[in-house]
Design goal:
By secondary structure, the protein is mainly α. It contains 3 helices and no strands. The protein starts with a helix and ends with a helix.
Length: about 150
């Protein structure tokens, strides 16, 4: 019969795989968050640039139609910024959720690893005791045989 530390190895491998998968999902969530933040920053920068262009154009004078066009476009940009801000918040929540999942799998894997180490240590000690007992019995039999031969 295999030793307990060997029997628990499949469970340890499953725990490792789950932790790896959770780490991968966390990495994906982190990259998605960074992409969403980059997109938000790009939109804000574009809004500022477009607003400066509008101010420069307004300083020299623009038609009512152009003014309405600028305002409509700035309004759409503002709406896109608000939507992207929500996307960033959603991405942050997902990243946090994935972090908690990873922490749970990581903790479980560490617990299994500690259990395996404890089992290996106990098995090592049991092997040492068994070997010592066999050695003592061998020595006792040798001593008894020598006593029998001397008598």
């Amino acid at each position: 019969m295999p030793k307990p530390s060997v029997r628990i190895r499949p469970i340890q491998r499953i725990a490792e795989k789950k932790e790896e998968n959770a780490a991968r999902a966390l990495g994906d969530a982190q990259r998605a968050l960074q992409a969403a933040q980059t997109r938000l920053n790009d939109l804000k920068n574009y809004y500022e640039i477009y607003q400066r262009q509008f101010q420069a154009a307004a300083a020299v004078g623009i038609s009512t139609t152009q003014l309405q066009g600028y305002f409509a476009f700035l309004s759409r940009l503002d709406e896109a910024i608000q939507q992207q801000h929500q996307a960033v918040q959603d991405s942050e929540a997902e990243r946090q959720r994935q972090m908690e999942i990873w922490k749970g799998h990581h903790s479980y894997r560490q617990s299994i690893d500690h259990l395996v180490e404890r089992l290996r240590h106990e098995e090592f000690k049991a092997d040492e005791r068994r070997e010592q007992k066999e050695s003592d019995e061998f020595g006792s039999r040798n001593a008894q045989r020598q006593t029998d031969e001397n008598s």
